[in-house]
């Protein structure tokens, strides 16, 4: 049998994994700076969580979930998104009894049965944040700004699109208006099905003929209540005060039923039709829907695979770092001990395990993107010295072995406890 990856999945090889790590490190640093604590939930949950939380009329629940029965005949689903599991954990562990607002961030794989495209996989990765326990417009502003800062730190040009989809009463009136508008117009089969259950889903349709029917549709602005309008105005005012540029799009809706009031998306013009890098909004009713007390909330989820695609073609050449130990077979054992002494102090150092020549070892050091070569051959060891060659400049110096470790630590920028300075 010819073993291959399942369709819509991929292997993340070392070079890509290094880029993923850079993205993740940026997410961790920013989340910590903003006061968000890391949270992990299982990769699979009971299917009812997503049916109830995400919405039975959504494409995710209707078409895209990977669901299966366990041996107890219980229906389980690989998580298609991260918010519902975090809210489930928030309710189950009674985290609403702790200091509010609660702030969490997550990073991990999600699963949806979608048609694979550039930057879109059936197993895909997301970074997301959730803030629970406050109705303040500045909570919306904080979450949006955190995402904006994230893209800025990764040097990814991004545009921000925002909308106000109001409260449940606002949307009920708007949905009725949409039904009346679309009932007399030709729509695709999917949209005809959506129209009876949740007309807002029609606005998600990418079918060109359906898009054409939306040109003269009513907009939600005229159905927004005073309280929701004031909240959204405060959000926009906060973004303006922080110099976060945005575009208002009154047709923007999110593909999950739990959203209300503020919704937003981060977009790019570098990936063609797949222009969304992620988004989010308020979901003030979800905690209560899943069995907890009434708790307002806001968050976002960002697609890491698309970010990696955007960054992989433009990143700077990898920064050279670390050492390669160059030695000879006759003193291999003695030289290897020095490599382990340096590793114990936090230095990145590798050495040959294939019996290669001195010349080949230097080539391998270059391929491995090492910054320095540490030469410990018979002559060097006999003199009680090591030679350190800068593989960028070609300059070489001799260092006494009794001061070698400290000298290497200074070059590498490593503290005595093994952490980077």
Short description:
The protein is α+β, with helices and mostly antiparallel strands. The chain has 2 domains: 14-167 and 225-312, BirA Bifunctional Protein, domain 2, CATH 3.30.930.10; 323-412, 3-Layer(aba) Sandwich (Rossmann fold). The protein has 15 helices and 16 strands.
Description:
With 421 residues, the chain is α+β, with helices and mostly antiparallel strands. It has 2 domains: 242 residues, BirA Bifunctional Protein, domain 2 (2-Layer Sandwich), CATH 3.30.930; 90 residues, Anticodon-binding domain (Rossmann fold). Helices cover 38% and strands 20% of the residues. It is built from 15 helices and 16 strands. Strands 1-5-6-11-10-9-7-8 form an 8-stranded mixed β-sheet. Strands 13-12-14-15-16 form a 5-stranded mixed β-sheet, with helices on both faces. Strands 2-4-3 form a 3-stranded antiparallel β-sheet. Helix 12 links the parallel strand 12 and strand 13. Helix 1 runs antiparallel to helix 5. It is elongated, with a radius of gyration of 27 Å. The C terminus is likely disordered.
């Amino acid at each position: 049998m010819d073993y291959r990856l399942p369709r819509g999945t991929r292997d993340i090889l070392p070079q890509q994994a290094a880029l993923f790590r850079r993205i993740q490190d940026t997410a961790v640093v920013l989340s910590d700076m903003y006061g968000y604590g890391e949270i992990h939930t299982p990769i699979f949950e009971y299917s009812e969580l997503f049916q109830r939380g995400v919405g039975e009329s959504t494409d995710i629940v209707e078409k895209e979930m990977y669901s299966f029965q366990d041996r107890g005949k219980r229906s389980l689903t690989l998580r298609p998104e991260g918010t519902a599991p975090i809210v489930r954990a928030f309710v189950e562990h009674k985290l609403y009894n702790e200091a509010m607002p609660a702030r969490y961030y997550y990073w991990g794989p999600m699963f949806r049965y979608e048609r694979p495209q550039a930057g879109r996989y059936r197993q895909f990765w997301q970074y997301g944040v959730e803030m629970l326990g406050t109705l303040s417009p500045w909570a919306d502003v904080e979450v949006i700004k955190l995402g904006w800062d994230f893209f800025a730190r990764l040097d990814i040009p991004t545009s921000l699109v925002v909308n106000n989809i109001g409260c449940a009463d606002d949307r009920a009136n708007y949905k009725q208006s949409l039904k009346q508008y679309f009932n007399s117009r030709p729509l695709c089969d999917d949209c005809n099905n959506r129209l009876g259950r949740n007309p807002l889903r029609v606005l998600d349709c990418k079918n060109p003929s359906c898009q054409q029917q939306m040109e003269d549709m009513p907009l939600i602005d005229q159905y927004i209540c005073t309280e929701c309008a004031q909240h959204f105005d405060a959000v926009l005012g906060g973004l303006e005060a922080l110099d976060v540029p945005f575009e208002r799009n009154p047709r923007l809706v999110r593909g999950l039923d739990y959203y209300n009031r503020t919704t937003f998306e981060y977009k790019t013009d570098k990936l063609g039709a797949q222009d969304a890098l992620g988004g989010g909004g308020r979901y003030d009713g979800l905690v209560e829907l899943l069995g907890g007390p009434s708790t307002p909330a806001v968050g976002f989820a960002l697609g890491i695979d698309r970010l990696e695609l955007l960054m992989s073609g433009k990143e700077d050449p990898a920064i050279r770092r670390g050492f390669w130990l160059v030695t000879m077979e006759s003193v291999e054992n003695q030289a290897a001990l020095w490599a382990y002494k340096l590793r114990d102090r936090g230095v990145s150092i590798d050495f040959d395990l294939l019996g290669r020549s001195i010349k080949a070892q230097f080539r391998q050091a270059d391929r491995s993107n090492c910054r320095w070569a540490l030469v410990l051959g018979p002559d060097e060891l006999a003199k009680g010295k090591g030679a350190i060659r800068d593989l960028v400049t070609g300059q070489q110096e001799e260092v006494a072995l009794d001061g070698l470790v400290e000298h290497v630590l200074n070059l590498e920028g490593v503290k005595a406890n093994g952490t980077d300075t």
